[in-house]
Design brief:
The complex is a heterotrimer of chains A (305), B (347) and C (347). By secondary structure, chain B is of the alpha+beta class. Chain B is built from eight helices and 19 strands. In chain B, strand 7, helix 5 and strand 8 form a beta-alpha-beta unit. Chain C folds into two domains: 170 residues, 3-Layer(aba) Sandwich (D-Maltodextrin-Binding Protein, domain 2), CATH 3.40.190; 126 residues, 3-Layer(aba) Sandwich (D-Maltodextrin-Binding Protein, domain 2), CATH 3.40.190.10. Classes of the chains: A mainly alpha (305), B alpha+beta (347), C alpha/beta (347). At the A-B interface, helix 9, helix 10 and helix 13 of A face strand 6 and helix 2 of B.
């Protein structure tokens, strides 16, 4: 409450103090911003320059003249759209499998005693410490016609003849899921670890069965982690090259493989760059969709159970 | 709904060498508000969790309303629980939180809403139904938790230190509110706390626990003024425990070495007249003093080396301000306030 | 220690002294063992004979390096080793000087190998390889038999690339080796080749993408019939795989030497190329690597041992059944051919 005196009097000292505080806060922000500026510029340059270069390259002929032919050729080719579809199909299938395997895995880890969980986590993370090439070739050895898996299947009579597990979509998918699973499990596990055990107990005490508790409490509360994991898996796999190259047997050609093909066969920088830009657009679209999904889920989750 | 009794029969739970529940037996009356009181590690929370079904006892039985629920899953026990950290669902708004147990019970959407709003009205939060949990204060969150625990009319209520995260004023206010809620609903309630004042304020009976055992179970007044042991005496409040060698006289004669007496700090006076003619007399020197608003605390060192605590109401503390450490002090207590207890346990 | 300290100054002295004594040319190769072989067998003796100093540069992507140099106007390379297809691409966008037929003996090469911009000097074959356990002594002897999945059942593995496979498809369809590009030059030729590949497609288990992969497939018996490069087929056998291969009907690819447009010492570079590709030096190159000389006279020098002839794509015994890959056709139609090929794969 300010009396008439306070209104006519010059600005009370309390206001002065507040303005000073605000100024200080601003100055501090500016200072920290200026500290991070060199890093921002460096990262910006390192990230943006190659992208700009690729953009430029995509509208140049081999002789370096401006052209839109690269894009016309690319967008009118059924091969492009087929490879885009394959890319989305691969990433989507990898994501679905990672979720199907990763969520129960994360759940098991999160509900295990901390000590055991840490040990299991090391096992889950182990693949991350080996080169992707080694792992991919490892799968080749396991999955090929006379590989361990087929030997086991035919030896036990489950399959009468070796199954085509590799050099196709299946093999590629197995390799990609194996690579991505730890990266998916980590954020989901972290999110589940953070869930208040009492919230789960509360749900049970109110009469929720285990599946019901999972559906109404655990999964919604882990949704942030699941979304992060999904984002990592989907976007990461959009650019996958080695796994489809080795395990796809030439039958699986996502955009990354097409880029390599266009480059290695014809050194067609223009076409390859245009494909690269297309891949970038694909990634941006996926990120935007996931971000939109997050916003939507955020709004919905507040009002509904 | 008629209140129901709970019976615990020789409940036992160990974690390795650690005995969390040491054959605990307990009979809780229908509609009773019983508090489990004890220091941390005394087993009170384990007992509560065993009741709720989250801890499986190795031996013993739990009967709720005469039915053996020892092996029953938590979600089938029909128990309302209020947790220390509220355990609200942050991804649901206030109303959805309170509706949750009703939705589980397949109550129609409309009815669930009505009942949830009624429960919220009971804790005076009906205006907050649409809020996010993150927009509520600690006290409001605890009320939502309460509403959620009562909305489905559980047969019993368990509360695990529900107020310990709140500040003092709010806590005291909520104590009365919870007690009133209990009186309205008549649900048999078990309440865990380590705060003896809270236990005294709220309970029909208090069970004091230590080392996985119930040391004493009694009404608040009884447990406060007639503790069964030194531990209970000291845990329930400022207690002075005097033994034979402590230079005290009772009715003019020195205490026998076998007797152990407990006198609450507020029952010791500087003025012998307030205590009548016969009673306890102590002599010593002032060791320290502290002003606490409504009273003064005086520490008096007896010749035996033991220190006793006096709590003198501010209104009767005319001489306290001038007392200095080292000054001789004589303290008196009425006979009826000197409560004999068994000799102190080796601590 | 003294040696180390004096090294930089020695290098400096040499660099300054060089222009006075002799021309210094820069040669760019792909490096590694291959580059070392080129040095030992070709340019070191050739430059000694001509009295040139040579600076060696290595680039894994010769076309990219060439583009960079020519487009920036800072050409430092005088002689560059390239794959013939890359070279044809480079020539098509004016990155190469035309060779001087008066200095470089273009007409001395077999007809299919002649090139006005890049002089081929060694060769490899895209060959048929097979699993000897599957076929024993009776493997397919030509491409027509390779296509015959009834007589020769088994899993095929082909490179996921139109190059060489179009030629092979036409050979399998009865086109004579010297008519392959005539047929391809007609519009229907490409369609015919693609249709022929599509016929085989159900029997193709793997479309491989790296040479190492083709070796692996052959060695592990994952595929019974593999179209791969002769070096890769030889590796599979050398690594203990039950594998063999034949140059019959092979498509021969070549590496060549070219002079970048605007090279600082173009005239001397032509002379160096001529000196590097003499019959004797190309024959000596096979002491280091199993790449067949393109200069037919090399086989007449008597410097290549009898048993080695079986390992060289251009050995006289293979002449008549094999086809030199035509870089000019591939530069002009490669993109179109690859797209048709990829669409066939996707069908």
């Amino acid at each position: 409450m300010t009396g008439p005196a306070a209104m006519t009097a010059p600005a009370p000292p309390a206001d002065d103090g507040r303005a000073g505080l605000r100024r200080d806060a601003q100055r501090e922000r500016a200072f920290f911003l200026s500290l991070s500026l060199p890093a921002l510029v460096l990262v910006g340059l390192c990230a943006m320059l190659p992208i700009l270069w690729i953009l430029r390259q995509s509208v140049l002929t081999l002789r370096g003249e401006f052209t839109l032919a690269n894009w016309e050729k690319l967008l009118s080719s059924s091969l492009t759209w087929k490879s885009v579809w394959t890319t989305v199909e691969l990433s989507g299938a990898t994501l679905v499998l990672c979720m199907a395997l990763g969520i129960p895995l994360a759940l098991a880890l999160a509900s295990a005693p901390q000590k055991l969980a840490n040990r299991l986590l090391i096992l889950v993370m182990l693949p991350l410490w080996t080169s992707i090439l080694v792992r991919t070739y490892g799968w080749l050895v396991l999955l090929r016609r006379d590989g361990l898996v087929n030997q086991a299947l035919t030896g036990t009579g489950i399959a009468s003849e070796p199954l085509a597990l590799v050099y196709n979509f299946t093999g590629t998918l197995i390799g990609m899921v194996h690579f991505m699973l730890p990266l998916f499990v980590l954020p989901v596990y972290a999110a589940m670890r953070d869930i208040d055990g009492n919230a789960i107990r509360a749900a049970a005490s109110m009469g929720a069965s285990l599946p019901r508790t999972l559906a109404t409490v655990v999964l919604p509360l882990a949704a942030g982690g699941i979304r992060s994991g999904a984002m990592i898996v989907f976007i990461y796999t959009l650019g996958f090259f080695i796994t489809p190259a080795v395990l796809g047997g030439g039958q699986v050609s996502p955009v990354a493989i097409r880029i390599e093909k266009v480059m290695s066969t014809f050194q067609d920088w223009g076409q390859a760059s245009a494909l690269g830009v297309l891949l970038l657009i694909l990634v941006a679209m996926a990120a935007a969709m996931l971000a939109a999904a997050r916003r939507l889920a955020g709004r919905k989750g507040r009002t509904h159970a | 709904m008629t209140p129901i009794p709970i019976t615990l029969d020789a409940l036992r739970k160990t974690y390795g060498d650690y005995v969390a529940l040491d054959d605990v037996s307990l009979a809780i009356r229908p509609g009773e508000f019983l508090t489990l009181l004890g220091p941390s590690g005394s087993g009170k929370t384990t007992l509560l969790m065993a009741l709720a079904g989250f801890v499986r006892p190795e031996a013993g039985r739990i009967l709720i309303g005469g039915r053996d629920v020892t092996r029953l899953a938590p979600n089938r026990r029909d128990i309302g629980i209020v947790f220390q950290n509220y355990a609200l669902f942050p991804h649901m708004d206030v109303l959805a939180n309170v509706e949750y147990p009703l939705r589980l019970r397949k109550v129609s959407r409309r009815q669930a809403r009505e009942r949830a709003m009624a429960a919220l009205a009971r804790v005076k939060l009906d205006a907050f139904a649409g809020r996010d949990i993150s927009q509520l204060s600690g006290g409001q969150r605890q009320r939502v938790a309460l509403a959620r625990a009562i909305v489905f009319e559980p047969r019993i209520m368990l509360m695990d230190e529900p107020l310990s995260a709140l500040d003092k004023n709010l806590r005291e206010h909520m104590q009365l509110e919870i007690r009133r809620l209990h009186d309205d609903l008549g649900i048999t309630t078990i309440y865990v706390t380590h705060d003896q004042r809270e236990a005294l304020t709220m309970s029909d009976r208090i069970a004091v626990m230590k080392d996985g055992c119930i040391r004493q179970i009694d009404a608040p007044q009884d447990i406060y003024s007639r503790p069964g042991s030194g531990f209970v005496a000291e845990f329930m409040g400022e207690a002075n425990i005097l033994a034979g060698g402590d230079c005290a006289t009772l009715d003019g004669t020195a205490l026998s070495s076998a007797a152990t007496l407990m006198i609450r700090a507020e029952n010791l006076h500087l003025d012998a007249r307030t205590c009548g003619t016969d009673g306890l007399r102590l002599e010593g020197r002032l060791a320290g003093k502290a002003y606490r608003g409504e009273n003064w605390l005086l520490q008096v060192a007896l010749a035996s080396g033991k220190e006793v605590m006096l709590s003198i109401p501010a209104a009767a503390a005319a001489g306290c301000e001038t007392l200095a450490p080292g000054d001789p002090v004589a303290a008196f207590a009425a006979r009826r306030h000197a409560h004999p207890i068994p000799a102190p346990e080796a601590a | 220690m003294n040696l180390f300290r004096s090294l930089p100054s020695a290098a400096l002295a040499m660099a300054m002294a060089a222009p006075l004594q002799a021309q210094t040319l820069t040669i760019t190769t792909s490096g590694g063992d291959y580059g070392a072989a080129l040095r030992e067998a070709l340019w070191a003796p050739a430059s000694d004979a001509l009295g040139y100093q040579i600076r060696e540069d290595t680039q894994s992507d010769s076309l990219a390096a060439l583009r960079m140099q020519v487009m920036s106007g800072a050409v430092s390379t005088d002689v560059i080793q390239m794959g013939s297809l890359e070279a044809a691409q480079a020539a098509a966008i004016d990155l190469l000087e035309p060779l001087d037929p008066g200095i470089v003996d273009i007409d001395g090469l077999p007809e299919g190998a002649r090139n006005a911009y890049c002089h081929p000097f060694d060769s490899y074959g895209t060959v048929m390889a097979w699993n000897t356990e599957t076929y024993g002594d009776a493997p397919p002897r030509n491409w027509a038999e390779f296509w015959d999945t009834e007589t020769f059942p088994g899993r095929r593995a082909l490179r996921a690339n139109a190059q060489d496979l179009l030629e092979i498809a036409l050979l399998s369809d009865g086109v004579a080796p010297d008519e392959v590009y005539d047929v391809l030059a007609t519009g229907e030729g490409l369609e015919r080749a693609i249709a022929r590949l599509e016929e085989l497609k159900p029997a193709v288990a793997v479309w491989w993408s790296s040479g190492a992969q083709s070796t692996q497939l052959l060695k592990d018996g994952e595929a019974d019939l593999v179209v791969t490069w002769n070096g890769r087929a030889a590796n599979a056998a050398a690594d203990g795989g039950a594998a063999d291969y034949s140059f019959a009907g092979s498509v021969i690819g070549t590496d060549c030497l070219a002079v970048p447009a605007g090279a600082p010492h173009a005239a001397e570079a032509m002379k160096l190329i001529a000196a590097m590709t003499t019959a004797e030096r190309e024959a000596r190159l096979t002491d280091h690597i199993l790449y067949g000389p393109v200069n037919p006279a090399a086989y007449a020098t008597g410097l290549i041992p009898e048993e080695r002839l079986a390992l060289l794509a251009t050995a006289p015994a293979n002449a008549g059944t094999s086809v030199f890959s035509d870089p000019a056709w591939w530069v002009e139609h490669g993109q179109e051919a690859q797209i048709a090929f990829d669409e066939m794969m996707n069908r």
